[in-house]
Design a protein that fits this description.
Number of helices: 11
Distance between the termini: 31 Å
Largest sheet: 9 strands, mixed
Structural class: alpha/beta
Helix content: 25-40%
Length: 291
């Protein structure tokens, strides 16, 4: 059983055509700007939105851990979410079998067939649940689905070698060029990530580099040059997607009972984003666009 925290339909930014994106829970990185903080841990977690709470008290009666007054006591059992009629409490993540996931994905196969779309697996990092991922990709390919996978690249090389024939397009994250800065802002350096990227390219895998640009973190000429140089070195790359920072992760981090590490950052101006794109495009023939 895979732990999945969302299955999102009619996605148009997670690969070609109309797609259904399956979000696996769990990630080996700890990016400070993460916009899906509920994806970091591999187990189900409770989200609490106080703005939706109507004060009915049902959760207090259902909780067996005295966690309503002390969040640290929460066992993520889901009892409070099950009785919350206002939707103020909900669980992020639930176990799903390959059959259950695929049944949901295949409901929209007609849209994939007419638009050139398919299924995208994302996260978190789907490779963290490799056995379940491999089973899902194998079953999806048997159904004739076009498969994209978004990945941070931090997983054993042999796992990428095994799934490469099943994935039509890798949406490969490229977060920071400098290894030390990568370590500082994500919790891991990028040596394994870049090695896996080059290996996939050598195997003939098609990739799109997905580059989150975070003001004050990696909006630098050195990183833009790194993006361009890396992209230009890949034989099978299809494009570069620039993903401007957005503060969506702030509210969800608070709903998890945690403190958001970048509270002062907001949306970058569109003119600034276009400057980033022009700066990278000037250094590579690989097409660059806003993702």
């Amino acid at each position: 059983m895979a732990t999945v925290f969302n299955i999102q339909k009619f996605c148009i930014n997670d690969g070609p055509g109309i797609r259904t994106t399956v979000f696996f829970k769990g990630c080996p990185l700890r990016c400070l700007w993460c916009h899906n903080p509920e994806s970091k841990r591999a187990v189900p977690e409770l989200l609490f939105n106080p703005e939706k709470c109507i004060g009915c008290g049902a959760c207090t009666k259902a909780c067996g851990h005295d966690a309503l007054l002390q969040r640290s006591n929460c066992a993520n059992c889901g009892n409070c979410a099950a009785v919350c009629v206002a939707g103020a409490r909900e669980m992020a993540g639930r176990p799903m079998s390959t059959k259950e996931i695929l049944e949901e994905v295949l409901k929209d196969k007609a849209f994939y067939d007419t638009s050139g779309g398919g299924m995208t697996v994302s996260g978190g990092e789907p490779m963290l649940q490799f056995r379940e991922l491999l089973e899902l990709l194998t079953a999806a390919k048997e159904k004739g689905l076009h498969i994209c996978m978004e990945t941070c690249g931090f997983a054993p090389a042999e796992h990428y070698q095994r799934i490469q024939p099943l994935v039509d397009l890798f949406l490969f994250d490229y977060k920071l060029t400098d290894p030390a800065l990568h370590q500082t802002y994500t919790g891991q350096d990028n040596h394994l990530i870049l090695s896996n990227l080059r290996m996939l390219d050598a195997l003939g895998a098609q990739t799109v580099l997905r580059c989150p640009i975070i003001p004050t973190v990696n909006d630098t000429p050195e990183h833009f040059a790194g993006i361009a140089a890396t992209a230009s070195s890949l034989r099978h790359i299809q494009g570069i997607d620039i993903e401007p920072y957005h503060p969506m992760g702030s509210s969800k981090t608070q709903q998890l009972g945690l403190e958001y590490p970048l509270p002062d950052l907001g949306f970058p101006e569109e003119a600034t984003v276009q400057e980033w794109i022009r700066a990278i495009q000037a250094q590579t023939p690989v097409p660059v666009k806003k993702g």
